[in-house]
Amino acid sequence: MEAVSTLPDGPTLAGQFTQIIDSIGTDPDLDDDSKELARVKVNAIAQALSVVDNNPGSLRLALKDGMPFFSSAASRIGKAIGSLLSGDAAQRTLSTVTDTATRAAISYFIS
To answer: CB neighbours (10 Å) of residue 101?
Structure first.
C-alpha cells in the first residue's frame, strides 16, 4: 500500500488497506476470481485516495465502481472499506474533499 503511505497518517492507512487485502484471501464467500476482483478494486480505492487532494474524481469513480460488488458479493469487504473511510486516519485526508459527488460516494460506504 505504498500509494497511501505519503498521506497524513499514511502508515496507518497502509496498514488498514493491507489488512483488508489480507482478509480477502480468507473470505469463504468469495471464489478465486471474486477475490482477485476485490483486490483490484481495493487497490484502486487506495490509489485514488492517495491523490484525492488533486483529483477527487478518481476516488469518486473508484468508489462508484466498487459499490455494486462491495454491497453484494463482497459485503464484508465493503464494510471494512467503510470503517477505514470513517476512521480518523482517512478522515484527516478526506476532510479536504469538497466535491459533492465524491462526498456522496464516500458517505455510501460509511453509512
So the answer is: 12
Locate 12 and state its grid cell.
Answer: 496507518
C-alpha cell at 30: 468469495
Strand extents, DSSP E, the chain = none
Write the pLDDT tens digit of every residue in 95-108: 989 999 999 999 99
Q: Which pLDDT tens digit goes with each residue over 13-57?
A: 999 999 999 999 999 999 999 999 999 999 999 999 999 999 999
Distance between alpha carbon 4 and the CA centroid of its chain, in Å?
11
The amino acid occupying position 12 is T
Pairwise CA distance, residues 68 & 52, whole Å:
22
Alpha carbon distance 38, 32 (integer Å): 10
**Residue that has been written with the C-alpha cell 459485503 in this structure:** 75
Residue 87 is classified by DSSP as S
11: left (phi over 0), alpha (psi -120 to 50) or beta: alpha
* Amino acid, res. 91: Q
User: Considering just the CA atoms, what is the radius of gyration of the chain in Å?
Assistant: 13
